[in-house]
Design brief:
Chain B: GO terms for molecular function: 4 iron, 4 sulfur cluster binding; metal ion binding; oxidoreductase activity. The complex is a heterodimer. Chain A is α/β, with parallel strands linked by helices. Chain A is built from 18 helices and 13 strands. Chain A folds into three domains: about 30-210, Glutathione S-transferase Yfyf (Class Pi), Chain A, domain 2; about 230-395, Rossmann fold (3-Layer(aba) Sandwich); about 420-455, no CATH class. Chain A is globular and about 65 Å long. The longest helix of chain B has 25 residues, at about 215-240. The chains are: A alpha/beta, B mainly alpha. The complex binds iron/sulfur cluster (2 copies).
């Protein structure tokens, strides 16, 4: 490997690597967490695990973690591990990710043979346990490995939980021993011909925001080429960054830091792409605070979520830095900030500011349709002024275009004209030819018998 | 004893006082025997950095420092009492974890305590999680915690008038996403049946169904009806294939 003599201890198998010199001032030089990569190599040699490796076909990009470790971010041939909160509540979030995948002509797999991580539920209600969480994770990871595509985790909580689960698995034989019989039942252990049953563990747990970070200069190129051609200009947009707790506070030593972003003293993802696009990153005093989501709280302890979001974040961002936009990189924070603004009017605490994730803002900048792709109609924040400021002044027409499409689809469906609908989608859908929806047709959907949610 | 000389501001509840000492010890020991416990607590300076940066501390009578201190003092009475309502204030943000000079993880301790509280079906926990039942139903049967149809505007009047607009023609709106995402209204995506069947095996093998049965028998029955129906459907499809 290129950096044979890094400042830290490099592992014999090459999974743990450091650059020649620390890339930025470091808090500590020998992070406890980093040793798990060496331990993974040892466990693989013993036949306990099989490491799903990042190879050339994944077109990896090197980034640094908080400890200065080199983390490989795969950028191609990705297995999309979707987020239930994003697909359910922020549809423009995954749609923007897939829009970029298609724009860049990348190979990816988007299949139904996956569950959520179920960690939101765990953090909200305690109704799970580490063995169950590990089994769910490993089942999903085995599925990705089986397809040959590398897992890209959309949700910040899934990412944080998976990082923690991996550390627990590597450090604790008792957890590995507890989860193996379950995986055996599921046919999710791998025998490479030596009679040993291996658990599949990915080389790196990778969040989509790390992918955006790794792709930021390509995104910038697309903005220069296509966004600017449409009259879009983000140079005057004032952006407050909110980093998600589960990406950088959970297993803090496994998330990108970069000399270009506060000299490596703050998480780099999201800030770096906003800077690459040439927008203005504005700093505010409560940047380190969480959003107030609280997992359980957003659903059943709402006054807390609302109070925290308004008083500790929205008010501060509005008064201190007058941001046009809060850029997030996770599911819960995005929802918390965009949904809890209007209610502030009741107490004279209305601090309007647009809210969206890094990838949604980047897609807008690169010329994606604000409603068809970025799905902003779903967003309860004050995004219209942002669109104007970005130079997307035809947003009303674009919205009308979207609404007409929805109406057309609704009418065809109501009239039972399914053939016409299918014809329409053939032209309309953007996911061909790059995305393959699945490795195999599902036998059926688990959703079929679910009752519709009634209030 | 009312309150605690070192700062646990809440009076020890009558219910806690009435519980036999051995039972309280058993519960606290269950927390301490979790394999994560030794990875979440190393010592404590009593510096309060965790509490100072804790979001829940700002709005609730709740302090992560207090939890860590009680464990180090082996204060069974207070710990047992905390496990009923106190710990549910935590937002699980793990700000305490990244900031603690000892690398303690008070949020992680809370996760273990909650799990033990659920497993032992504490009454307070049952009440607290009642409104959460719909989420549990969804995640246990489909593997998705959230879906578009859960965001009924009358659940969330505080989210403003835009929410009501969003729900109009919901299905058509989802079909109009030009990618294969968010198309399903009842789940976040169409989870394949075979995947859900694997997940049910995980729930069975790891005691999650059992845990739910103790927590909320009615909810458990509804969940099991769906699970069994899906398992039958799967069997039929499998037989057809053969
Ligand atoms: S994880 Fe819980 S205890 Fe720790 S800072 Fe967050 S809310 Fe406070
Ligand atoms: S930050 Fe750590 S050392 Fe300080 S009071 Fe909290 S748990 Fe104790």
């Amino acid at each position: 490997m290129a950096h044979a003599h890094g400042f830290g201890h490099n592992s014999p198998g090459g999974l743990l690597r450091y650059p020649e010199k620390p890339p930025f001032p470091l808090k500590e030089y020998s992070a406890h967490y980093d040793h798990i990569f060496e331990m993974m190599e040892e466990l693989e040699a013993k036949g306990e695990i099989l490491i799903h490796r990042i190879t050339e076909e994944h077109q990896p990009v090197e980034v640094f973690t908080r400890t200065g470790r080199i983390k490989l971010i795969p950028t191609n041939k990705l297995w999309h591990h979707k987020s239930c909160g994003q697909c359910g509540n922020i549809p423009g979030y995954p749609a923007s990710i897939f829009w970029f995948m298609n724009k860049f002509g990348l190979d990816y797999l988007n299949e139904p043979h996956q569950t959520s991580c179920t960690a939101w539920n765990y953090h909200g209600s305690g109704t799970s346990n580490p063995v169950a969480l590990a089994a769910v994770w490993l089942r999903n990871m085995h599925q990705a490995w089986k397809t040959g595509y590398y897992p890209l985790i959309h949700c910040g909580t899934s990412f944080g939980s998976y990082k923690e689960t991996r550390e627990q698995l590597i450090m604790n034989k008792e957890l590995r021993d507890a989860v193996k019989p379950i995986l055996r039942k599921l046919g999710r252990l791998v025998d490479i011909g030596d009679g040993k049953e291996r658990i599949v563990i990915p080389q790196e747990v990778v969040h989509y925001s790390e992918w955006v970070h790794a792709m930021r200069y390509k995104i910038k190129e697309l903005y220069e080429k296509e966004g600017k051609a449409k009259g879009i200009d983000v140079s005057n947009v004032r952006v407050a960054i909110h980093n998600a707790c589960h990406t950088y506070k959970m297993i803090a030593d496994d998330y990108p830091y970069d000399p270009e972003v506060f000299n490596g003293q703050r998480p780099a993802a999201s800030t770096a792409v906003v800077k690459a696009l040439g927008a203005q990153v504005v700093d505010y005093s409560t940047w380190f605070d969480c959003c107030g989501f609280g997992f359980r709280h957003i659903l059943t302890e709402r006054e807390f979520t609302r109070s925290f979001a308004i008083q500790r974040k929205l008010k501060v961002i509005y008064e201190e830095v007058k941001a046009d936009l809060i850029v997030t990189h996770d599911t819960g924070c995005t929802t918390t900030f965009e949904k809890n603004q209007w209610i502030g009017k009741a107490h004279g605490m209305y601090y309007p500011v647009a809210v969206m994730s890094d990838v949604m803002f980047a897609a807008l900048a690169c010329g994606a349709h604000p409603f068809k792709v970025v799905q902003l109609y779903w967003n309860c924040s004050d995004y219209e002024r942002l669109l104007e400021k970005m130079g997307i002044s035809n947003w009303r027409e674009l919205r009308k275009e979207w609404e007409d499409t929805v109406k057309y689809i609704a009418e065809l469906e109501k009239a039972g004209k399914y053939d016409e609908l299918m014809e329409f989608f053939k032209e309309y859908d953007l996911y061909e030819p790059y995305s393959r929806t699945s490795t195999g047709k599902p036998k059926a959907s688990a959703t079929a018998n679910m009752p519709l949610f009634k209030s | 004893m009312d309150g605690h000389p070192y700062g646990y501001n809440l009076p020890i509840s009558e219910k806690t006082k009435a519980v036999p000492w051995e039972e309280k010890v058993r519960i606290v020991e269950e927390v301490k025997s979790d394999f994560r416990f030794k990875e979440y607590i190393f010592g404590c300076l009593n510096c309060g950095v965790c509490t100072a940066s804790c979001p829940s501390n700002r709005f609730f009578d709740y302090s992560p420092r207090e939890i860590v201190q009680r464990f180090l003092e082996e204060d069974v009475e207070v710990l047992y009492d905390m496990m009923h309502e106190y710990i549910w204030a935590c937002s699980q943000c793990f700000t305490c974890w990244i900031r603690c000079p000892f690398v303690n993880n008070p949020g992680g301790l809370v996760a273990i305590m909650r799990e033990v509280a659920v497993r032992n079906a504490f009454e307070a926990t049952k009440d607290l999680l009642k409104p959460y039942g719909r989420v549990l139903l969804k995640v246990m049967t489909t593997g998705n915690q959230l879906s578009a149809d859960m965001l009924q505007p009358d659940f969330f009047p505080d989210w403003g008038p835009k929410m009501a607009d969003n729900m109009e023609n919901l299905r058509a709106k989802r079909l109009a996403i030009p990618f294969d995402v968010g198309k399903s209204v009842k789940t976040a995506w169409e989870v394949s049946l075979e995947t859900a069947i694997e997940m049910y095996t995980i729930w069975r093998e790891t005691g999650i169904f059992e845990m739910l049965e103790k927590l909320d028998p009615n909810l458990y029955n509804v969940i099991m009806d769906i699970v069994e129906e899906n398992e039958e459907r799967y069997e039929e499809l499998y037989e057809e294939e053969e």
